[in-house]
């Protein structure tokens, strides 16, 4: 036993002597590569970055989504870290922190003596700098080889960073169990409050965890954590960081956990914002231009992968995505859809835009929506039916031919030869023939044959030059047929696309795409991204005034009377696709443009509920 202890002591003394000699001598030796160069080849000490949670907020600044995967960390700068926390860690982990150069010879010697008695490695004598190095660059293996590397890296780190920088990095890297890293995330997770509001007792309680995160897990082993907390407080008293009175008070203060789950509200809207963030970065960083110029699918795929990686890097850095979400309107839309569409096999989506501010304030993805599932508000494309008529037929008609509002149009049957040589012979609903009718009558009752005649007069390609300004993503030259007057597109449009297009009627004929993201900022508040305001003149004020009158009449005495609301202005257009597969209504008031779609995912008829007009009732509830 005596020989064994003596051997351990000798090994320890040799280890200390060798390490100190290596550290001091390398500072003097001028070789082709210094120790710093060698270490730098393995790890870039000048570029240390830690992941941090990203946050999504609503229009009021309230967090609606915390974005992180395995590492829950909210990074704090040094001046944001509570002094109580810094004092607790220095008192318990490294009382000579401000005196040493990365390693503490006295602590190491003490640890070696203790290890010799135990005939194993029980104590490490590590400084906070060494622990930081271990967390950042090394393994946690209890070997002398790792220990020597730790000392060397710590010495170099102290030459590169100030003591304040090291404390900042250390307190943001330490592990607090349950996937939580850093004091701020720990405070929010275990006590549901920011670390600046921690009491002395709570700060000491949390500071007890990193010594052995599983052993001192505050949830599973709170009794052990409390015992360790008392030891932390004792060390703080001995180091004069707290007074006797503060110490006694902290010992008696009760610790009540208030474990907070990850904030992840409004999944419909949040899912959309994740996509809009990708679109925003693509536009501002030039990825969209590269995608348009890509000549092969393989090249396009590589660009898309690069874009996705860039966005993920941003989210890992810790950004704040400020949105225009109106939580009241979002919740109301979801409740209204459930109330008006109780059938389990029927779905619905609603999009609400504040066209005065060009902001998307609500978007639903479907009933019982789960985050990142198919979002019917922006990922579903369906035939718009007659809801396309104001955009593709009537407004271009007024604009191109300067037709008076009081003009008439033939509403009898019609057959017109398409440019592909085939005859197109649409009917009005129910096969009715109405002779010559005013334009207002044709639109408010949604007659089909007048719309086809008008599109033919304007010219299909000419009419589509207006629709192209709205950037409907799945509308292309293959849709340039007379059937498009009735919403007969190959792929269709999404609710958000159609709703955005209708905002033009609220903006004197100008189109300004409405977005959900107001701006994206870095941790320090620097604005990283925001949408550049784009204004496209689609048609004249005169045409727009005529269209507003027509749309108002649709609600006054046409197909949308059930959607009437008490407002200075309201107008809109219904759309019902063949066999009642889709029900649409897009309408506007003085402040909002709102679109509603109701249908089945299976593209089958919902004729059995069409008489209840759920799309109109949902719109009405939202616009009240």
UniProtKB/TrEMBL annotation:
It is an enzyme of class 2 (transferase). It is found in: Cell membrane. It comes from the Bacteria. The keyword Nucleotide-binding does not apply. It catalyses: [GlcNAc-(1->4)-Mur2Ac(oyl-L-Ala-gamma-D-Glu-L-Lys-D-Ala-D-Ala)](n)-di-trans,octa-cis-undecaprenyl diphosphate + beta-D-GlcNAc-(1->4)-Mur2Ac(oyl-L-Ala-gamma-D-Glu-L-Lys-D-Ala-D-Ala)-di-trans,octa-cis-undecaprenyl diphosphate = [GlcNAc-(1->4)-Mur2Ac(oyl-L-Ala-gamma-D-Glu-L-Lys-D-Ala-D-Ala)](n+1)-di-trans,octa-cis-undecaprenyl diphosphate + di-trans,octa-cis-undecaprenyl diphosphate + H(+); Preferential cleavage: (Ac)2-L-Lys-D-Ala-|-D-Ala. Also transpeptidation of peptidyl-alanyl moieties that are N-acyl substituents of D-alanine. Its EC number is 2.4.-.-. Residues 61-236 form the Glycosyl transferase family domain. Residues 349-590 form the Penicillin-binding protein transpeptidase domain. The keyword Glycosyltransferase applies. SUPFAM superfamilies: beta-lactamase/transpeptidase-like (SSF56601), Lysozyme-like (SSF53955). Coiled coil: none annotated. GO terms for molecular function: glycosyltransferase activity. Pfam families: Transgly, Transpeptidase. Gene3D superfamilies: Biosynthetic peptidoglycan transglycosylase-like, DD-peptidase/beta-lactamase superfamily. Keywords: Carboxypeptidase, Cell membrane, Cell shape, Cell wall biogenesis/degradation, Glycosyltransferase, Hydrolase, Membrane, Multifunctional enzyme, Peptidoglycan synthesis, Protease, Transferase. Its main location: membrane. This is Transglycosylase domain-containing protein. It comes from Halalkalibacter alkalisediminis.
